[in-house]
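Our consortium's second objective concerns turning raw sequence data into structural hypotheses that experimental partners can test. To show how far this objective has progressed, the report includes one record in full. It was chosen at random from the queue rather than selected for favorable results. The single chain below, 274 residues long, was entered without modification.
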Amino acid sequence: MSAPDLRVTLVQHDTAWHDPAANRARIADALRADTTPADTTSTDLIVLPETFTTGFSNDAVAGAESMDGESVAWMRALARDRDAAVTGSIQLREGDAVYNRLVFAMPDGALHHYDKRHLFRMAREQEWYAAGRDRMVVEHRGWRICPLVCYDLRFPVYSRNRADAARAGELDYDLLLYVANWPAARHEVWRTLLRARAMENLCCVVGVNRAGTDGNGHPYLGGSVAVDPLGTAVVECDAAPQVAHAVLSMERLREHRRRFPAYLDADGFEIDLG
């Protein structure tokens, strides 16, 4: 039996610099004001940008929250109230380390998380944050979802969708998800790589970027998008802050995999996470 369609809400947010309370309020207001669809609770997954509480800033490490902090609690409450999973990344402290951590809050209160693996050295992110090691796949409403963070998009080996040995005839995931602070200077790279990941991995892809200009003066062109496995945009945002919606079809995804099973000819490999 085919899984149902996945209804995804993309929140392209103009992030207030270093102000978690203001950002939580802005996002809540944007979702409350959204009238497309008319029943704004009718979504399965709400996607927020990378570091949606502060913007992408090494200075935000000083105010890093914990998994028991206000922002994670807010995500859990939003997931419960909307009966939808909620995901986005936050600077979170664990012991002596701070991670750029993607939190995946489920409607039943469960939490999953993925720590950004590839840290953006051009902004010296690796000097302030600890790198994650393991990729994560979350099952939600019949879809297997692999969430990654921003600079991870440039590393296709890490995100490769391989045949799942435990599930004959299936791949690791159905939806590859990226949350980002991807600046205007490299906007075409963002657009190109998201489509490439969908086509090469025989999956749907959702990428959610921020909008506006950050506290370091870097502008962002948004471009949040949901892409089908042929690389065609289901919905694509312009540069303005907005809430957008996409419906992803499992039936069409599986039909494409049946017609074009390129994964059967893929090369085997191992990743050294040293």
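The partners drew two points from this record. The two ends are 40 Å apart (CA to CA). The CA atoms of residues 24 and 53 lie 7 Å apart. Both points have been shared with the crystallography group to help prioritize constructs.
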